[in-house]
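Step 1: inspect the first sequence and its tokens.
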Amino acid sequence: ESDTASEISFQFNKHKKTPSIGSHSSDMASVSSVSGSVLSVYSGDFGSVDAQGTVEFALDYDEKNREFQIHVSQCKDLAVVDEKKGRSDPYVKTYLLPDKARMGKRKTSVKKRTVNPIYNEVLRYKIEKMVLLIQKLNLSVWHNDPLGRNSFLGEIEIDLASWDWSNRKLNWYTLKPRSLSAINGVDHRGVMNLSIKYVPPGSLGPKNPPSGEVHIWVKDVKDLLQLRPSGVDSFVKCYVLPDTSKKSHQKTRVIKRDTNPVFNHTIVYDGFHTEDLKDACVELTVWDHEKLTNHFLGGIRLGLGTGLSYGISVDWMDSTQEEVAFWQEMMSAANEWIEGLLPLRSL
């Protein structure tokens, strides 16, 4: 069924309802830091004000330094967020889409108490021109809130493939409201074709298996983000959360230059008691492999999505309805392969 089979143990102290906070705190912190590196473009407080006003900026590509430059000049007539005080504290934020996780965000300084901020700042991305031309620039304006509930003030999106690169002048653009699909975080990253099954302890005979097993068969992935003209060099990484130790970590081989890679890789985790299925989460993430660093492409989390693991509130127990239904079907059909086609998402 697969070219590679991996089997590792997944052990919790079954005498305790919750794992030791000390033993798992570093693991949970590492998961949190990964999640933080791929925060959605669409995070923030929406709908509090209507988008209005304009933004002035210019685009340029420095061939010598292989650098994309966004000269953010100023904004005019922005919406007022705090009507009582008649103030907004705006800043400008940019992403390159669809690969926002890889390139990251850039943002200007915050200008306080003004709806006509002047920035005169340059936001820079080190990126090859050929890669840049398959991206879109998302430039948005936000009100900075000290408590973190930043308000969206408007955005502009530019397809860089059709941009006139001889145009280096500052131009004014009307800020637009966010579309419904953007608010909902619709972000196509591809789909994963996989099967899973749960084998309860002793279900195949006396003490066979001695502990429960979760089998994960990663078959293939379709429509990955194309980061380079030649395609993408991808692999799949797997953890059973809350365990992020080396014993939990498994990964497939790298499939080169293919946006529709076939992995056909099976992973077996033992040490699973039936009650662990309510509190554990299988995290599968797809990565682009490069020499210096790997870049996140998308992932899925299979679990009940309750927000809790062994009584502890965790941000990674956030499975979508599709992912929850897939996990529940596995739980209710012991020893049977459950097939699924699940969309990859930001985690």
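Step 2: inspect the second sequence and its tokens, then contrast the two.
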Amino acid sequence: NDEIFGLFQAAEFMDEEFATKADLREIAEGEDMKEDEFLAKLADAETPYIQVVFNDLLETLPEMLPEDNVLHTSLYEVKKFLKSFDMGYQKIHACVNDCCLFRKKYKKLEKCPKCKASRWKTNIHNGEEKKGVPQKVLRYFPIIPRLKRMFRSEEMAKDLRWHYSNKSDDGKLRHPVDSVTWDQMNERYPAFAAEERNVRLGLSTDGFNPFNMKNTKYSCWPVLLVNYNLPPDLCMKKENIMLTLLIPGPKQPGNSLDVYLEPLIEDLDHLWKNGELTYDAFSKSTFNLKAMLLWTISDFPAYGNLVAAQ
């Protein structure tokens, strides 16, 4: 929960009601480097003692092990090692009025080409424009490397084939593979269906208030992907549901949702039309991974926004 809340803070999910915390916001934006350093030292001072003990333990353990051991000798090295498993995300500047994303042909613009709103924030103290500090930032977690990594695990690569040989034979619906839609798509796209490793996805999105305060009007929109190749006891587990977009507030995107879906749709389109060369740890071979977006999952208001986006 702390990690997720940190993401929201990093995404500048601060309501106007939090204007009294403007100094902290400016620090986070890198405007006052000295204050940044001071806060970093305060954070170090508040580091739990257990981390210090763990670091000392890592320095001591190698002396008890054979000389050719490869154990990391500091907490810093352990964190650096674990960081290599992090897939990361992209920060994409967005128009404050949800008109466009500042990417591709708009990447170098400083004003929205549609509403002419500034790309940058304004200092609430002196009214000056803060160059380099965007008013709105979309977080995109690229799906292609994450799907490819799933096949790098032998167990997961095996589970991703589950749908191919576990269709219900008694007419009962136990999994999306037993649905009419699944059969119809297989008949319409037989080449796609013939490759059991091709992925079928569902998209879900809705707004919520990350601050959990009744007096704060704020709507953040996460966009999630569900992998229907997996068996029913796995496909809806939180570790298998992919967060792909984090759309900032304070207002809901409404019919402008398509603006924020743009990078995700581009990757889905690539996976559908071209595919991606992927290593399969289960079969010890490579194949061309493709993906299909089967459904969207949402309540009726969000469904209206998704329909408009399509």
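Step 3: confirm your contrast with the notes below.
Residues 141-308 form one domain. Confidence is low (pLDDT under 50) at residues 12-25.
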